């Protein structure tokens, strides 16, 4: 199986597991409790840090910053800092991030269809 580390995949793992690499790569990008929600929230328009924080009301500042940095590192979002006081920071989806939207939309559809069904209880 493909082994994923914080920095992605080594070349040997990619070559040895080419058939599952795409799934593992995508999973690696979306891993993180809030990443898919951040991507979904940015699909309509660019947002300030404070708006994202308000949308994800229970996330800590440290966790949000970490998730945003990882998404930026992976090329999914861009971060623009405007030299104002206080500083204005805007996050937006990149082209690569926009390419993830069909996956996020499919997750939304799946959750709407299956999410509210009662669990089967075996007795």
TrEMBL record:
UniProt keyword Acyltransferase present: no
Chain coiled-coil ranges: none
> Its Gene Ontology molecular function terms?
DNA binding
Tell me where in this chain the HTH hxlR-type domain is found: 5-119
Looking up InterPro entries in the UniProt record yields:
HTH_HxlR (IPR002577), WH-like_DNA-bd_sf (IPR036388), WH_DNA-bd_sf (IPR036390)
Keyword list (alphabetical) reads: DNA-binding, Transcription, Transcription regulation
Asked if the record carries the keyword Heme, the reply is: no
Q: Which PANTHER family match?
A: HTH-TYPE TRANSCRIPTIONAL ACTIVATOR HXLR, TRANSCRIPTIONAL REGULATOR, MARR FAMILY
**Name of the protein:** Transcriptional regulator
Organism from which the protein derives = Staphylococcus xylosus
């Amino acid at each position: 199986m493909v082994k994923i580390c914080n920095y992605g995949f080594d070349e040997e793992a990619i070559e040895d597991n080419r058939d599952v690499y795409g799934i593992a790569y995508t999973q690696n990008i979306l891993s993180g409790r809030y990443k898919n929600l951040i991507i979904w929230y940015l699909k309509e328009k660019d947002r300030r840090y404070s708006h994202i924080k308000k949308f994800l009301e229970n996330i800590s500042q440290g966790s949000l910053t970490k998730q945003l940095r990882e998404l930026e590192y992976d090329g999914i979002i861009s971060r623009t800092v405007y030299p104002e006081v206080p500083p204005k920071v805007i996050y937006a989806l990149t082209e690569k991030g926009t390419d993830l939207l069909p996956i996020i939309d499919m997750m939304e559809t799946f959750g709407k269809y299956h999410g509210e069904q009662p669990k089967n209880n075996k007795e």
